[in-house]
Design brief:
Layout lengths: L5 E6 L2 H18 L3 E6 L2 H4 L4 H4 L7 H8 L5 E5 L11 E5 L8 E5 L12 E4 L3 H13 L4 E4 L5 H9 L5 E5 H6 L8 E2 L14 E6 L3 H7 L5 H16 L8 E10 L2 E12 L6 E9 L4 H17 L12
Parallel strand pairs: 1-2, 1-3, 6-7, 6-8
Antiparallel strand pairs: 3-10, 4-10, 5-8, 5-9, 11-12, 12-13
């Protein structure tokens, strides 16, 4: 094999560098070639606006994809939940590796769990999806919380709690795990309480569609079960015409009987950010064996949600 390094495009954040480093090691093992990280700054990294205001969709992705198309990097690693649902024709998702824990977590003061937070507790999150579901749960269980919009990396967000400015922040379990800070979690939020973002916990490895040998090599890192699950989730998001900053939660999981995987269940929720109205549905069927079957599963559940008024709960629908 060639000893010319493969160039991996990555965002500069600590989390992005950590997950790209892990992918780089795996790619080096399957290709026998060294992999070097090429740091790329995206609009989402430099803007101080809230993600919901700058559109959310693609703000962390466009610069990486531009570098791929210009041939400045050979492949890129994304957090799958950041990817727009429309795939460019000249790029391909060569691999979706095994998914990390998709759940959201709480990092709270005094090691508190979500349901033990004091009345009026201030909970920080930059996500309309998390805001909507936390407020809906609080309303249903007579909890008194205030959600506070925040931006920033993991250190910044947890810092608000340590400084006493917030009682808790909500983060993704996968991100904390990848940077070695999972032990700071004070509560793992059940997916019955908060459904994660479509694709949360999964990575996407993307390269040029005309690079057949690299696509084949990267494909060895692909996990078929993760891929069909996230395909169903993202198909639902696309059918709702919602961007990745919309208040949509979705999770496809595999239902097993012992060691035998029998079915796939897809659950989804859309809600107003104040938690007053939600549409939450699920469907269960055979495990999809093709991209088209996984896509159909997501589309069917989305159409049921739209029939129950989901579109009116999302604010302005992303174009």
């Amino acid at each position: 094999m060639s000893d010319i390094p493969l160039r991996l495009g990555t965002r500069r954040s600590r989390l992005a560098m950590a997950q790209s480093g892990q992918v780089a090691e795996a790619v080096s093992q399957v290709t026998g070639r060294p992999v070097e990280l090429v740091e790329i700054t995206t609009y989402g990294d430099t803007s101080r606006e809230h993600l919901a205001q700058i559109g959310g969709t693609g703000v962390f992705v466009t610069a990486l994809r531009d570098a791929l198309l210009r041939g400045e990097v050979d492949f890129a690693v994304h957090s799958l939940k950041d990817l727009p649902t429309t795939q460019p024709a000249d790029l391909v998702l060569a691999a979706v590796p095994v998914r990390e824990d998709p759940r959201d977590v709480i990092v709270a003061r005094d090691a508190l769990k979500f349901t033990d937070l004091p009345r009026g507790a201030r909970i920080g999150t930059g996500s309309p999806r998390r805001t909507a579901q936390l407020n809906a749960y609080a309303r249903a269980h007579a909890l008194d919380i205030a959600t506070v919009p925040i931006r920033g990396n993991v250190d910044t967000r947890i810092g608000y709690v340590h400084a006493g400015e917030l009682d808790a922040v909500v983060l993704a379990a996968a991100g904390l795990s990848r940077i070695g800070r999972i032990d700071e979690v004070t509560d793992f939020l059940s997916v019955d309480t908060v459904l994660p973002a479509p694709g949360q916990g999964a990575l996407a490895i993307e390269c040029a569609a005309d690079n057949a040998s690299l696509i084949a090599a990267l494909g060895e890192l692909d996990d078929p079960f993760t891929r069909v699950a996230v395909t169903a989730e993202r198909s639902l998001l696309a059918a709702l015409e919602a961007g990745c900053s919309a208040p949509v939660g979705a999770l496809a999981d595999l239902l097993a009987d012992g060691q035998i995987v029998k079915e796939m269940r897809l659950r989804a929720v859309v809600g107003t950010t104040d938690g007053t109205r939600t549409v939450q549905l699920s469907t269960t069927g055979p495990v999809p064996e093709t991209y088209d079957q996984a896509t159909a599963l997501g589309r069917e559940l989305a159409s049921e949600m739209l029939a129950q008024g989901a579109a009116g709960l999302m604010g302005e629908r992303a174009q």
